[in-house]
Amino acid sequence: MIERAHEAELRTREQLASEVFDALEATGFTVHQEGRSQGEPRGVLLSVDPSEGLEGGVFVKWHVAHALSSAAMESARREGRQARTFQHYGFVTTHMHEALISVLTSAGFQAVDVDSEMDPYLIRVVR
Length: 127
Fold this sequence. Notes:
Blueprint: H1 7-26, E1 31-33, E2 43-49, E3 57-63, H2 66-79, H3 84-106, E4 110-113, E5 123-126
Parallel strand pairs: 1-2
Antiparallel strand pairs: 2-3, 3-5, 4-5
Protein name: Restriction endonuclease type IV Mrr domain-containing protein
Organism: Streptomyces bacillaris
C-alpha cells in the first residue's frame, strides 16, 4: 500500500503546482489540472500525486486531443508504426515534451523526465 505524504508536504506540492500552472499559462499554454478541469484535457496536463516518497510530487505532460490520439492508434493498428498519423502523433508528443521541460527550466523550475516505461513523456517538477 502506498502511503500518503504528510499534510505539510501536500501543501508544498499544491503551492508548487499553482506556481507551475501560472508560469505555463503565462507563456500561452492551455493548462488543465487533473481533477479540476472540465471537459477533455488537451494541452498541458498538470497533476499532484499525494503519495509519499518518490512516487508522489508535481507532474506535467503534454496531452493531445483524443481525436488525434485515437486516429494515431488506429492508423498504427492498420498500417504499422510507420503510418503517417502515428508518426505525427509521436512527433508532436516528443517535441512538446522537450518544449515543456525547456519552458519550465527557463521559468526557474527543475523539470526532469521521469523515464518511466508506463508513462514515457511524464515530467516531474521540483524547485
